[in-house]
Design goal:
The chain has 355 residues and is of the alpha/beta class. The protein is built from 13 helices and 14 strands. It has a single domain, classed as Alkaline Phosphatase, subunit A (3-Layer(aba) Sandwich). 37% of the residues lie in helices and 20% in strands. The chain has a 10-stranded mixed β-sheet, sandwiched between helices. It has a two-stranded antiparallel sheet with strand order 9-12. A two-stranded antiparallel ribbon has the order 10-11. It starts with a helix and ends with a helix. The relative contact order is 0.23. The site of zinc ion (ZN) has 6 residues, from helix 11. The site of zinc ion has 6 residues, from helix 11.
């Protein structure tokens, strides 16, 4: 009898011991969140046909639809929709990181930081533009670029790539934020970015907003994605990264379909890079969506063999149509169905609890 008791006790403590080791060795999933600004279903369709009838999105496991209205407007802007997805609360158009009753909100990126995640932001706009800013800034107006830059300089995103260098050192307050951001190594080229072993890196691609692909934008988003993912992956901590295809929206505002499709095709390569990483890694959630549709685009003709598409725009602004959500990896099944854009935050946050 005594012997049995000892064995039971011993076995129980062994189980606890093994359990501890097992839990510790299982990381929370990495999260790769890709936002195609203005990338409605028609922008995806047009870009897919222009890309030879193929997109990385075809390899995703679950598809959902997101409702994009903001707290004060049937048609959202990028600030309100970015805030909805990054913080889980609807707010007024133009507002970043603050809800409609003036409460400052924590973003999914900041929650991940609290959980010990490494973080990164990549954009083909400036880093202070509404979509990336919705992950770190708390401002009443998205157009307060110098204030947003000041907030970003005090933030601690590990790796960032985007335009907008001038907002950090050619400022009305005379501050040089780049000097003040002394925990960062700043790089000027893809080679430098790739080679640097620094734990925090800033890469300003342009002084203001980067040009379009049609105007020969440098620093392809898929290469930036691959380099950043390998940097994030070299630490033991899990990571959160937001990658924005910023200019799909700008092409649609300009009612220029080839601007839209070329920006989509570059963004699609970044999606492919993210997906390839996740497939290899096995513990990475990839979510691709849009903040809203832009242009009210209808696809009316084309020729797949010639990679040609023809469409018509209904507006120079955004529209209120639902946008698709594609997901792959741990917790991806929770992204199926139809829901408000705020639910995306909750689903991303829930992913952190998966061990
Ligand atoms: Mg937008
Ligand atoms: Mg944007
Ligand atoms: Zn827009």
């Amino acid at each position: 009898m005594k012997m049995n008791k000892f064995y039971i006790k011993f076995n129980l403590s062994l189980i606890f011991f093994l359990n501890t080791i097992f839990v510790c060795s299982q990381d929370s999933p990495n999260i790769i969140f890709l936002i195609g600004d203005g990338m409605g279903l028609t922008q995806i369709s047009a870009g897919m046909y222009a890309n030879g009838n193929s997109t990385a999105l075809e390899e995703f496991e679950y598809i959902g639809l997101s409702k994009t209205t903001s707290s004060n407007s049937f048609v959202t802007d990028s600030a309100a929709s970015g805030t909805a997805m990054s913080t889980g609360e609807k707010t007024l158009n133009k507002v970043l990181g603050i809800n409609s009753i003036n409460v400052t909100l924590k973003s999914i990126l900041e929650i991940c930081q609290d959980e010990g995640y490494k973080t990164a932001l990549l954009a083909t706009s400036s880093i202070v533009h509404a979509t990336p800013a919705s992950f770190y800034a708390k401002v009443i107006s998205r157009y307060e670029y110098e204030d947003i830059a000041l907030q970003f300089s005090k933030h601690s995103v590990d790796f960032f790539v985007g335009g907008g260098r001038n907002y950090f050192y050619k400022r009305t307050d005379g501050k040089n934020l780049i000097k003040e951001m002394d925990s960062y190594t700043f790089v000027k080229s893809m080679e430098e970015y790739n080679k640097s072993k620094a734990s925090k890196i800033g890469f300003f691609t342009y002084d203001l907003e980067p040009p379009s692909i049609l105007e020969n934008r440098k620093f392809p988003l898929d290469q930036l994605t691959k380099i950043t993912l390998s940097k994030l992956n070299s630490s033991n901590a899990p990571f959160f990264i937001m990658i924005e295809g910023s200019q799909i929206d700008w092409g649609a505002h300009a009612n220029n379909l080839s601007y839209v499709t070329t920006e989509f095709i570059e963004f699609n390569s970044a999606i492919q890079a993210a997906l390839d990483f996740a497939k290899k890694d096995g513990n990475t959630l990839v979510v691709v969506t849009a903040d809203h549709e832009t242009g009210g685009l209808a696809l009316l003709g084309g020729k797949i063999s010639q990679k040609k598409v023809y469409g018509k725009f209904n507006t120079k602004g955004h529209s209120a149509t639902m946008v698709p959500v594609f997901s792959y990896g741990p917790n991806s099944e929770s992204f199926k169905g139809i829901y408000e854009n705020t639910a995306i935050f909750k689903k991303l946050e829930n992913t952190l609890d998966i061990k």
